[in-house]
Design goal:
This protein has 109 residues and is an alpha+beta fold. The chain is 42% helix and 25% strand. Strands 1-2-3-4 form a four-stranded antiparallel sheet, with helices on one face.
Amino acid sequence: MAVLKKLRASTLMETLVATVLIVVVFMMASMTLNSLFANTIAQNDDEIRQELLYLQYQYENRRLSLPYYGEMGPWSIAVEQVASVSDVVKFSAVNGTSEKKVSYSIGNE
């Protein structure tokens, strides 16, 4: 009859404390993950990079006249020839809210 051995049970207070601790741990983990995902989305600049590549394509196929200035959401886009070097074109975008900058230059061929 070793199968019917009596097990020691926990009290109601122990169960409540353990439940509260588990809830607190999961709440902290949820808040951390939420913050991580929010930062990842806020720092995402894939759309503006795609737009700059599209403007580069238009420029290379002579469909974009310089200088070009535009807006895309909070981003201010500028495509200009560099004054010191006439055959270099600078593509740049600045985020108005976070002041993040994305830019690159290409040379004419």
